[in-house]
Specification:
The protein has 196 residues and is of the alpha+beta class. It has helices at residues 8-40, 44-67, 72-96, 112-120, 149-159, 183-195; strands at residues 100-107, 126-132, 135-145, 164-170.
Length: 196
């Protein structure tokens, strides 16, 4: 099918409408991905708002599909939009970095510098001495905002490059010690200066 030979009606049916369906699916599946993530982290209001717009857009898209059942390009656009929406939704959520994570660090090397640096940067840190397969180890535990995860990983690598660490999602946090958002830039500058 040559684009130049398409009439206005055919252009709409075989090009514009499939592009609209694709776009609608990208948006509604992205919202669905965010809704599930918000639900799993206990953000009920955000999940409800995402659900409302997700289903509204989905209804508009599926209505067009049923009105043009003979147009196979619509099916491809619908499926491609679904796949792309899943990817876009996860990408958006990673950028938003909503919620908290628990970071467990296990190190054989003395962890005093690492712990001291984290505390200096206003992170709440709990430590304990434990026994691992190759002897005594130091266990360092902290709950942080997901937005701070990359900064924490950089700090771990700076002070204890061979440390084992794991990261887990945390559904809810009450109390705790967290650096104020305004201090994040200042803390990053401090970290760079100490590394020099």
């Amino acid at each position: 099918m040559d684009i130049q030979t398409l009439t206005d009606g055919e252009l709409f049916r075989y090009l514009i409408l499939p592009l609209l369906i694709f776009s609608a699916r990208v948006v509604d599946v992205s919202l669905g991905t965010l809704r599930i993530i918000y639900l799993s982290r206990g953000f009920k209001l955000f999940a409800a708002i995402c659900a409302f717009f997700e289903i509204l857009i989905w209804l508009a898209a599926i209505t067009q599909i049923f009105q043009h059942l003979s147009n196979f390009i619509m099916y491809i656009a619908y499926a491609a939009g679904f796949a792309t929406g899943s990817y876009v939704g996860i990408t958006i959520e990673n950028k938003l970095a909503v919620g908290f994570v628990a970071v467990r660090i296990i190190t054989q090397k003395d962890a005093n510098e690492l712990v001291g640096h984290l505390r200096e940067m206003d992170y709440g840190v709990t430590t304990a001495t434990a026994s691992g397969i190759s002897g005594s180890v130091r266990l360092v535990f902290t709950i942080i905002r997901r937005k701070d995860l990359n900064e924490i990983i950089d700090i771990i690598r700076q002070f204890n490059p061979k440390a084992f660490f794991s990261v887990e999602d945390v559904r809810a946090v009450k109390e705790g010690i967290f650096p104020p958002y305004g201090n994040r830039i200042l803390n990053s500058i401090r970290s760079v200066r100490k590394a020099k």
